[in-house]
Amino acid sequence: MLKVNIICVGKLKEAYWRDAVAEYAKRLGGYCNFSVEELAESRLPDDPSDGQIQSALEKEAGAMEKYLSAKSALNIAMCIEGKTLSSEQLSEKISRSAVEGVSVVNFYIGSSFGLSESVKRRCGLRLSMSPMTFPHQLARVMLCEQVYRAFAISAGSRYHK
Asked: Considering Cα of 59, then 63, then 66, then 70, what sign does the dihedral take?
């Protein structure tokens, strides 16, 4: 069974976000081994310098290293400058990857300052949900829903209409 991880910086503070992620995690249990890995967010001052931001992003990248180094993994960076895919295209990408021998799909969501360029370079796909900007908590829920939708499409479920 395919392993799908969402590796993200920071924790969901509000119960309604956690409940939404938990609901999709439960639904995904029938399709894949799914987990959300929450990494520590670097503490920055209210008005950080570019150097402080870069240092924080590299520290967060270091925490992502064990996932980036996984063999036979498809690594996907979630970033605004990424490619946009339809739900059907994401479903096809995941399905095709599994057929080609990928055993793990990792999605990376950075902090409010994004992802380190070093993480993005190591990912096989840069993916954007939209040219619009969303709060990271909502983006995590939206990604969980889209992963669930991708598996539902592959299974021919009525969920995707």
From this structure: negative
The CATH number of 3-155, from 3.40.1280.10, 3.30.160.40, 3.30.980.10, 2.40.50.100, is: 3.40.1280.10
Q: What local confidence, expressed as pLDDT, does residue 113 receive? A: 93
> Model confidence over 102-126: pLDDT tens digits?
999 999 999 989 999 999 999 999 9
29-81 pLDDT per residue, tens: 999 999 999 999 999 989 999 999 999 999 999 999 999 988 899 999 999 99
> Which ranges constitute the DSSP H helices of 69-134?
87-99, 117-122
**Type and span of the H or E element at 18:** helix 15-28
